[in-house]
Structure prediction request, 465 residues.
Amino acid sequence: MKIFNTLNNRKEEFVPIEEGKVRMYVCGPTVYNYIHIGNARPMIVFDTVRRYFEYKGYDVNFVSNFTDVDDKIIAKANEEGVTAAEIAERYTKACQEDMAGMNVMPATTHPKATEEIDGMIEMIQNLIDKGYAYAKNGTVFFRTRQFKGYGKLSGKNLDDLEAGARIAVDDEKEDSMDFVLWKPMKPGEPYWESPWGNGRPGWHIECSVMSNKYLGKEIDIHAGGEDLVFPHHENEIAQSEAANGTAFSRYWMHNAFLNINNHKMSKSAGNFFTVKDIAEKYPLQVLRFFMLSAHYRSPLNFSDDLMESAKASLERITTSVFNMNHLLKNASDKEYTDADKEFAAQIESFKANFDAAMEDDFNTADAISSIFEIVRLANSYLSSDKPLALINDVKQSVVSLCNVLGIICEEEEELPSEEIEKLIEERNEARKARNFARADEIRDMLANEGIVLEDTREGVRWKRV
Ligand code: AMP
Ligand code: ZN
Prediction:
């Protein structure tokens, strides 16, 4: 499997640290507002990467944080006259709802910055002890020039950076390239006690600490949007490698940005959509399908037309699966003819193409094309007089390949009304016969199908919930 590694600027064969395991960290959102569709891109892309690894049999330990203390959260809290914790809690919950809607699997661990402050203080102290950081009047800075590898991810050079930097008059810093690990409290802001006085951590230290705690000193993959390469990820490398004395992450993956109508997404320009805005117009799986229709390292343009076309494409797949389910009801077991065998072999070759596309730096665009090839062939070849096993295999192939992409293409069949009526009738009989065990069993069975029963004077009523 090949992954484009930002660290070396080329596609590289993936070799995990531990065979069969993937330790992966994805920088999560700052929870000060509803997430926008740009934030949704890394969530969907790296969830798909995770799903592909799992499909290939890897055991994936996937960590993604919520940044729940930050200037923007505090500003929003002040605006609304509530606590920062309230803002963070509200938007973490909203984000989790959106993720579920987009079929993004919950991470193995979703650490929150405010719950990991002790670990951050410990790492900062470790950096001070090793000479990589210093405290000045309640602020702790990272001594950037002390870390020799600085710039290796972004390809930036400290002297160029310094020359291009605005001359910020910051008396506290030894060097203008130093960055903050701990900042002193300001009135009205949340704070924690520390050896350097009350205050709160800088943003970068959070990910270094959480990655260390939940995944270990060295991890396989660290990921996020391309805007995080510099300074966030560069600073994470400096902190982690300086503190641990080992390499940090083997592979660095970055998704390109999502634009709207060919412009940068911007609230003030009015081209800005939250995931919740989109959910009012489309099932969120359409958004997911749209995001995966481009390679993650290509910029992606969002527009109504493109969403409509993603919706139509996705429907071609779901309709084909629906039709195959219908054929299955009337098909029977049969020997495969030579033509059936040839057809089955063609399907297998498209499945292999899907894998090959995913193995090539997760080319979901080409992977989706392979699913369409299967659908096209199935639509033209299959009928109810073909062998049941053949139809079933093709259907299962489409369903499982879609699953790798986190796309659900098969509606769960609802229990038909007549079945429900029959079961209710049976339950009535059971109760009359004082067979309460059976009556309860039927009630539970229906509850599992999302059907609740109400005893009324006119008899038993049922409804779907
Ligand atoms: P933030 O909450 O700003 O830290 O962003 C959370 C994640 O969303 C980061 O990985 C960002 O790189 C990513 N992100 C933000 N805006 C966009 C965008 N327009 N397109 C793609 N990714 C984005
Ligand atoms: Zn991070």
Residues 27, 29-30, 38-39, 41-42, 224-225, 227-228, 255, 257-258, 265 surround adenosine monophosphate (ligand 1) (CB under 6 Å).
